[in-house]
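User: Batch of two.

Assistant: Item 1 of 2:
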Amino acid sequence: MKKGFTLVELLIVVGIIGILAGILVASFGGGTESARNAQCLTNMKSLASACHSYGMAHKFYPLAGSVEIMSIEKSGKSTEKNFWERPGWISWNSQGAYSRRTQSHASSLSWFSSCYSQTFEEREYCVTNGAIWRFVTGNRKIFQCPSHVIKYKAKPPAWSYVMNSFFGWDSSKGSSYRPVGYEGRPFADLKRADKRLLFAEIPFMGVEGHVNDSQSPGIECDCVLQYGDNEVIGFNHSSGKKAKFAHVVFADGHAEKLTWPDSGMNESQVRELTKWLCEATDVSFDGKQYREVN
């Protein structure tokens, strides 16, 4: 008669199977997250490439945010004001806003473009009417970080990235923004392009690691990184060791992965780092802290 397994032997076998299953699940999950991270970085490089294509075609970088342009036409004693939009890299949510071109878009209080709070059609219009749409060959997914989409799968974001306000607004005087011009920043002679932040991620994961679930227009879902108003780079990604990092791409087209320091950062330090990168300041990192290089 064959002897069956004892209870101890069965428990050992079950335990081994459980350990192997856990390893397989962990490996699969890590691989999936790695794939998402790689896709996010590729997206940012593609956006930078689209901006370069736009720059070569127009001699200027695309605007970080849309600008309203006004012209005045006189006919006899009557004067008529006409308005239209020069789209930023992401357009205003302005579908129908210029159906009456004599009405200022900005004064209608409907100028704000949002990642979350508008209808699908309105959010789609923001992207497809943006200045760089034709330079990404109609690839909608380039605008969305896969990890961002998963976090907000109930209502996926229209885009996951923000463009440095330097390319749309002069932030040198704090909150007193001034348009850099209807054309944008000159493409050929931009200084310190290798140090100047072009795109960063929307901070859909908060500094403390929780999901930032704001559904209203604001710093979490605008398309412009207005660092003068304390908006920050999003450290949204994590590795298997729970280390956080952020993807950024610079005006010369190269992308980097910013590592969250072992000692952590508070919100003030994240704002400081964001400001340095937006203003093309030299920055060093020793594993514990980001520092401005004088």
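Item 2 of 2:
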Amino acid sequence: MTIRENLERLEEQYLSPYAALSSQSKGRDVWEPDCDIRPIYQRDRDRILHSKSFRRLKHKTQVFLAPEGDHYRTRLTHTLEVSQIARTIAKSLRLNEDLTEAVALGHDLGHTPFGHSGEYVLNQICPQGFAHYEQSVRVVERLEKGGKGLNLTWEVRDGIRNHRTSGHPSTLEGAVVRLSDKIAYINHDIDDAIRAKMFIERDLPTQFTDVLGHSVRERLNLMIHDIIENSQGKPQIIMSSGMEEAMKGLRTWMFDNVYCSDVPKQEESKAQQLIVFLYEYYCSHVEKLPGEYLVMMEHQGEAKERVVCDYIAGMSDSYAIDKFEELFVPKAWKV
């Protein structure tokens, strides 16, 4: 018996009856022989971790565009915080940690440069529309490894696609990531906003903090405990009604006072115009795209606009700025 088979047997003996067992996965679109060491979801986690799109997250905006300071979150640190919260919950509920971590690490792979402002403008100008959760699935199915994709399992892709607020993941592990994403960004965005001197902790509405807690640490502790206590032994991942309503209320307050405020938005129009310029340029000069994108158009029948959107969405903030300067900013003439 291989190490993988032993690990699968341990899952069957230990995990919750509601957990997604590695041995019962719906599998991959393209069949592959099993690894002799790693169960199927662990392989998916490893593939995401070693992907180029995952590494690029370190240079993509979370909320604050090009912040001056090393301690503001990026899309990568957000992803790692989601993963840690999700694993804590999954482990406590005896769910499949490998599947949970794979979904968490992959959920934002399709995010654009410049955060949600980049997502918004691409959705406006691309005829096929753009949503980061769908793009994340497209990254792992079509764009990684030179167009071959990562060939991830159905369960991981389902969790990635359905991590958004209106999503309905098919596994409890996916549902854990969906809630962990919100817990992570609400709390770390508060931390970043306080660091940016937008407000202080006691400015947060007490009607929400009296329920959720009066510090990032306390809120994380209370919210995670609430999910575990209310989901224990149940075929669903839920929060208590009071905690959920307070979280929704604080999230709405954050939209009004942080996400849509002048501080993180002050460079947004410039960033969006930059993306528009890049999009229009590459739509008019498709020959300037990297080779794998040309193959997608010429041999796979992908629309030009879709491929240009793929290329721009994959850029880091710094790479997009460098490309803009290369294409549109005049350079000094030298002898």
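The radius of gyration is 21 Å.
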